Amino acid sequence: MTDRSILQPTVDHPITIEPTGGRVTVRVNGELIADTREALTLRESTYPAVQYVPLRDVAGDRLVPSNTATYCPFKGDAGYYHVATQDGVVDDVIWEYREPYPAVSAIGGHVAFYPQKADILVEQA
């Protein structure tokens, strides 16, 4: 294993995490995969905001572990899931930081969905 830098959020690369404050539903191939009122919104630098949904609010029987893994120096190692739907399996829809770095520890136990592969609807309270 190679040494990896752990970077902290800064003024030049801010990261904020706060409760979304409404209902978040996620559909893959039109099928409801997640439904929660406890999502977190992560904003990182100039990237689009990402909804992190508690894993307990995701249809676990639809998740298929993936061998895909990525690394973010601000958040840590990410693992992925495929999602099984009636129309077939959609690859690498979901990612999760199982042991997020301390600066983003709030996203532990939560997963995020690629918006190109899932329909993510945020209804404000």
Low-confidence stretches: none
Compute the number of structural domains: 1
Count of individual beta strands: 10
CATH architecture: Beta Complex
Helix amount, in percent?
A: under 10%
Strand content: over 45%
Tell me the number of helical segments per DSSP (H or I, 4 or more residues long).
Answer: 0
Q: What is the overall silhouette?
A: globular
CATH superfamily: Domain of unknown function (DUF427)
Question: pLDDT average, as an integer?
Answer: 96
The CATH class is identified as: Mainly Beta
Task: Tell me the major beta sheet.
Answer: 7 strands, antiparallel
Which sequence of strands runs across the widest sheet? 1-4-5-9-8-7-6
- String of helices and strands: EEEEEEEEEE
Distance between the termini: 45 Å
C-alpha Rg (nearest Å): 15 Å
Describe this protein's structure.
- By secondary structure, the chain is mainly beta.
- The chain has one domain (15-124): Metal Binding Protein, Guanine Nucleotide Exchange Factor, Chain A, CATH 2.170.150.
- It has no helices and 10 strands.
- The chain has strands at residues 15-19, 22-28, 31-36, 40-44, 50-54, 63-72, 76-85, 88-96, 110-113, 119-124.
- A 7-stranded antiparallel β-sheet has the order 1-4-5-9-8-7-6, with no helix packed on it. It has a 3-stranded antiparallel β-sheet with strand order 3-2-10, with no helix packed on it.
- It is globular and about 45 Å long.
